Amino acid sequence: MNIQSCVEVRNEWDIVKARQSGRNIAKELGFGTVDQARITTAISELARNIYLYAGSGEVAIERVENGGKLGLKIEASDSGPGIKDIRKVMEDGFTTSGGLGAGLPGVKRLMDEFTIDSKENEGTIITSIKWLR
Amino acid sequence: MRIPILKLNQYLLITIQVDLDDKTALQFQEDLLEKIHETGAKGVVIDLTSVDMIDSFIAKVLGDVVRMSNLMGAKVVLTGIQPAVAITLIDLGIMMKNVPTALDLEQGLEKLQQELGG
Predict the structure, then answer these.
(1) The Histidine kinase/HSP90-like ATPase domain covers which part of the protein (chain A) (predicted)?
(2) Terminus of chain A with fewer CB atoms < 10 Å: N or C?
(3) What domains sit in chain A, N to C, each tagged with a CATH number?
(4) Does residue B1 lie within any of the structural domains?
(5) Other Cβ atoms closer than 10 A to A69
(6) Do B56 and A45 touch (CB under 8 A)?
């Protein structure tokens, strides 16, 4: 079965849409309630970052497999301004939007794998995976 | 979408039963402060039993509304935070410091009664 979804993020409601579809897929893959909450929260943070900093972009969620391990992959991509200083955005409490500054370092802690690929003035792709235990 | 705010004697009761989007969360913040002003309520319980996810934005809105209500002279207790939500918040690094909480609505009301002296 092909489990995947792609949500375009253009406004606040798309953030809700993205996390709902993430929760459905996580449930379908067999993640427990706590991991479902972790995945949904991670998607919410990533989708909000797209909305806040890039204006629009998309969140793709899909099932991944690696050597018998099953997981859920989130790919959040945008063609926004990019991240100037990746080390800085990974610091707890760093924010340019008046938020809590918990977003990206938080997502990294919620998920198992986390990579940022960003080029200034070209965009950002954040990929993150949670493995089913 | 508006979140209903119920009045019970000197208390306001809110139970959040929708998947909160940013606008609804901010609207709720305003509505609650207006309602405190209008009713002169001394205590507020916000019940989160049905909330299955709190991200950093919603956490900020909730923490802020507690502090804003305090400024106006009303005490707020958050109740019913689910195990998965508590785990996720701490993973995110959000400690909700200085935000009074209780296990459920009943204990939340008890906490308010104690703090307000009957």
Answers:
(1) 34-133
(2) N
(3) 4-131 (3.30.565.10)
(4) no
(5) 12
(6) yes
